[in-house]
Specification:
Keywords: 4Fe-4S, Electron transport, Iron, Iron-sulfur, Metal-binding, Transport. The protein is of the alpha+beta class and 97 residues long. The chain is built from two helices and three strands. A three-stranded mixed beta sheet has the order 1-3-2. The protein is elongated.
Length: 97
């Protein structure tokens, strides 16, 4: 077998492995993001996060930091990899533009 064929096969193996790794990595990241913010989480405590807003007119669903499509629990820029309640609130609330 020539060196060119060996290099080509090595390249294809590495490319296939990288593609599989990226695919599985994306699946695991989505699984991690499915975790809801716990009220005793240190960041949640520091941000005074609550699952049900006590501040009139201020909810996670109308905050500029909320991400993702409309749902009961959604990703938030303040809590990476976690979901916040649509009706929740935290001290970082910013009016949606």
């Amino acid at each position: 077998m020539s060196k060119t064929n060996e290099k080509r096969r090595q390249f294809l193996k590495l490319s296939a492995g990288g593609l599989i790794g990226m695919t599985l990595g994306g699946v695991s990241l989505r699984a991690i993001a499915a975790e809801k913010v716990k009220l005793d989480d240190p960041l949640a405590v520091a941000m005074r996060y609550t699952h049900e807003s006590e501040v009139e007119g201020q909810y996670c669903h109308n905050c500029n930091l909320i991400q993702g499509e409309e749902a009961d629990w959604r990703p938030c820029a303040i809590f990476p990899g976690k979901l916040v309640a649509n009706e929740g609130w935290c001290a970082a609330w910013v009016a949606m533009q």
